[in-house]
Amino acid sequence: MFQSNHAFFKADDSSDQSRLSEILGAFSYALDLTEGQPAGHSIRACWIGTQVAMALGLNGDELRDIYYAVLLKDLGCSSNAARVTEMFAGDDRKLKHDFKLLGPKPEDFGAFIASEVGVGRDAEVREQALCNLAENGGEIMTDIMGTRCSRGADIARQLRFSEDVAQAIAHLDEHWDGTGLPLGIAGADIHLGGRIALLAQVADVFYSAKGKDAAIAEVRCRAGNWLDPELCSIFERLSDASGFWEELALDDLPQQLWALEPAAQYVTVDEDYLDDISFAFGRVIDAKSPYTAGHSERVGMIADKIAGHLGMDDQSRRVLRRAAILHDVGKLGVSSAILEKPGKLDAEEWAIMQSHAAHTTNILGQIGVMSDMAMIAGSHHERLDGKGYPLGLDERSIALESRIITVADIYDALTTDRPYRTAMSTEKAMAILQSEVGVAVDQRCFEALKFLVAEGQLQ
Question: Is the pLDDT reported for residue 1 higher than 70?
Answer without folding.
Answer: no
